[in-house]
Design a protein that fits this description.
Layout (H helix, E strand, L loop, with lengths): L1 E2 L2 E7 L3 H12 L3 E2 L2 E7 L13 E6 L7 H11 L4 E5 L3 E3 L3 H11 L3 E3 L2 E4 L17 E3 L18 E5 H7 L12 H11 L4 E3 L4 E3 L4 E2 L6 H15 L5 H9 L3 E4 L2 E4 L5 H6 L1 E2 L1
Parallel strand pairs: 1-3, 2-4, 2-6, 4-5, 8-12, 9-13
Antiparallel strand pairs: 6-11, 7-13, 8-11, 9-10, 14-17, 15-16
């Protein structure tokens, strides 16, 4: 079994079962990472361990509840390997993910993303689920065909690069606080730096969880980050969500400005939850 010069990095907040499944997935890797770095945001560090690779856990405290950008940068700083793979805590890697990402990174100094498939509800509760995730999942509805992908479609669920490339991009911009747009900004910055975005055959499986559509639970974060993004790039991110907010009468969105007309109520937020 090969030990690769790769650090797998994940950040987590209140997702212990998902994190455990991520580790189980790495245990089945055809090539193990040199380490797994876990960064807990505003919560105690876990005590997960593996007989196949070191697991290093950290606690990262910040004033914001979900310091996604800052926590990812902190994780990258801890990485001891020349190549890094970021996996969202909800993602379980396919056995080939680590090796295929490494081969891609060695082949070209690009920013690499891999396909993410979505597991059906209850899939991770079934006996032997790790061996039948393909059958229990479906392609991403937006990014099903990844043969050609633009920097605007970069996402942080699953990506890899060398530490040198990450540093050239400058990491994630910590002016983005909480949820929304920090990954699109990362992709735009990579493009600005002349770093190509390419697709690796590195499949990850996203574990099912309830979600909000639109994400009214992150309403204020999304608006704040959208404005930050517009000031930086002169184009709006997350347009689908912003349009839904406008259609609900929550915001006035015209050309270069967004104004909050009212905040969503508890009933509206609850109604947006998709179980």
């Amino acid at each position: 079994m090969n030990i690769t010069p790769v650090s797998v990095l994940t950040i987590v907040k209140s997702r212990q079962e998902a994190l455990h499944n991520l580790v189980l997935g790495l245990e089945r890797a055809e090539a193990f990472p040199a380490e797994l770095v876990i960064v807990h945001m505003n919560e105690p560090a876990s005590e997960l361990a593996s007989e196949n690779f070191p697991v290093r856990t950290f606690r990262f405290d910040a004033d914001e509840r979900l310091p996604l950008a800052a926590a990812r940068n902190f994780a990258a700083e801890q990485a001891a390997s020349p190549f890094i793979i970021f996996l969202d805590v909800d993602c379980i890697p396919a056995p080939q993910l680590v090796g295929n990402y490494l081969n891609a990174c060695r082949n070209a100094d690009h920013l690499w993303i891999g396909p993410v498939r979505y597991l059906r509800q209850g899939a991770t509760s079934e006996p032997g689920f790790l061996s039948k995730m393909w059958e229990a999942s479906s392609p991403d509805p937006v990014r099903a065909d990844l043969r050609e992908v633009t920097h605007a479609l970069f996402w942080s669920l699953s990506f890899a690069c060398s530490k040198e490339i990450y540093d050239r991009i400058g990491g994630f911009d910590t002016r983005f606080t909480g949820y929304g747009a920090e990954d699109t900004d990362f992709g735009f910055t990579a493009r600005q730096q002349g770093i190509a975005l390419s697709v690796a055959d590195a499949i990850a499986y996203h574990q099912y969880h309830a979600s909000y559509d639109p994400p009214l639970n992150h309403f204020e974060d999304i608006l704040t980050n959208a404005k930050t993004f517009f000031m930086k790039w002169e184009t709006w991110p997350m347009e689908g969500w912003l349009k839904k907010f406008a259609d609900m009468g929550l915001i006035a969105w015209e050309d270069n400005e967004i104004k909050i007309l009212r905040k969503p109520g508890d009933v509206e937020i609850a109604a947006a939850l998709k179980l």
